[in-house]
């Protein structure tokens, strides 16, 4: 399990492709009850979905290349009950900021 930040459970996972591992991800959530999950190497492309009940998912997919399987990509999965906001970075279009509003302010850049 990842890090605790003022009572939050934060997990990080290099998925190396999350589409075929959603059952593994849901089992991990059921067992460890994380509040935030940071995923690298999602390998998601246009038309792919990543839905986990009671969580909100924010994705940053690598640009799509025709005739090639999706590679790279990141996702932040956060409990829907946690108060947060998200917005694009003003200088870097692909960078987004997620601001957790409680219990303590925290920003995650992805």
Automatic annotation (TrEMBL):
Cited Pfam families: Exo_endo_phos (PF03372)
Ranges that cross the membrane: none
GO function term, MF aspect, one: catalytic activity
Residue ranges of domain Endonuclease/exonuclease/phosphatase in the record: 11-92
Origin: domain of life: Eukaryota
Descriptive protein name: Endonuclease/exonuclease/phosphatase domain-containing protein
């Amino acid at each position: 399990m990842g890090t605790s930040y003022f009572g939050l459970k934060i997990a990080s996972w290099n998925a190396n492709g999350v589409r075929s591992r959603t059952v593994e991800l849901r089992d991990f959530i059921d067992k460890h009850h994380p509040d935030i999950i940071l995923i690298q190497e999602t390998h998601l492309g246009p038309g792919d979905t990543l839905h986990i009940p009671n969580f909100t998912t924010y994705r940053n997919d690598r640009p799509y290349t025709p005739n090639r399987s999706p590679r790279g990509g990141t996702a932040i999965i956060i409990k829907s009950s946690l108060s947060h906001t998200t917005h694009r970075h003003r200088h870097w279009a692909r960078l987004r900021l997620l601001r957790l509003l409680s219990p303590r302010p925290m920003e995650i850049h992805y």
